[in-house]
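Hi there,

I know you've been waiting on this one. I reran it after we fixed the sequence typo, so this is the corrected version. Both the input and the resulting structure follow.
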Amino acid sequence: MRNQAFITSAIFGILLATPQSLPSPAIAIITNAIIIILESLIAWTINISLLHYFGEQTSKVSGHKKRIIVSCILNTLLAIILYPCIMYIMQYFPENYQAPLAFTSKKMMPLFIFKHLTLNTLILFAIEIVLLRNTKMVIELENARLKIKTTEARYEQLKQQIRPHMFFNSLNTIKSLYNNNSEDAEEYLALLSNFLRVSISNYNTKTIPLKEELSLCEDYLSMQKIRFGDALIWTFSVRDSGSSNAFVPSFSIQPLIENAIKHNEITEKHPLEININQAGNRIIVSNEVRLKESSEASSGFGLTNLAERYKLISHDEIEIKDDGHIFSVSIKILDNEDSNYRG
């Protein structure tokens, strides 16, 4: 606020001195400008001191009024004391010096007091503008923080909705495998253990390197391979899988693969082929559409979840295409691991 004090004092000195001093000579105008600048600086000092003195009460109506009343009283006393002091000092100026009109007679003292209180009113107005601006900035900052916390909470909620569905399915699969082939069940359990370890390590992570997400998908597909054998085929063609600047939301590709397995017929006669490819800065997961006859209608929850998470992280949209023959979902590769990434 000190910068505002110096700037406004100079402006007040220039704007108020000239009309008050005309038709006095230039020296009188300059003198009056200097006096007004000094008055303004003293008034600013008083008001800033009052601002600090009342502290938190300034934000309250009662404290606000007290500060303004005390400011007006102190500045009135200042004007009453300052005027005779200036008149006294001017007695020692050269005889040919023409004083500003405001100081040619003691009868001008009420005008000087009025002028000083007007000056103080302008300063109070300037302070109010600064306080309002600061309050607005604080509110905007708090709103931004609240929005971030809300977004993070929503994201965590969405992320938690992914895992239970997949884990319950895995437990049912292990139970079935142990009844038929204990070796396959043990291998499946080992893969699931690694899958769980990676997912838990990324528990508090919104985005992970693309290569880690693809590794997670490899483990998941290997688990499904134990179930379906040659009826399940997949291909990976991702050139940026090892890039240090390639990120995706955690559990963003794996649910797409799970979705394809869940809704399509998988037999050795008609194997399901899932393709994970890269096109530009997007990852595309696609498969041939051959829906299960007994498949329950899709709720679209998985895709809705993924779409919401992408919006929360990067404001990007996922792209879904379904022409009846090929179903594909395209997601953008993020080049920043920060959860506040935008672009």
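Quick highlight: Residues 109-160 form the longest helix (52 residues).

Best,
R. S.
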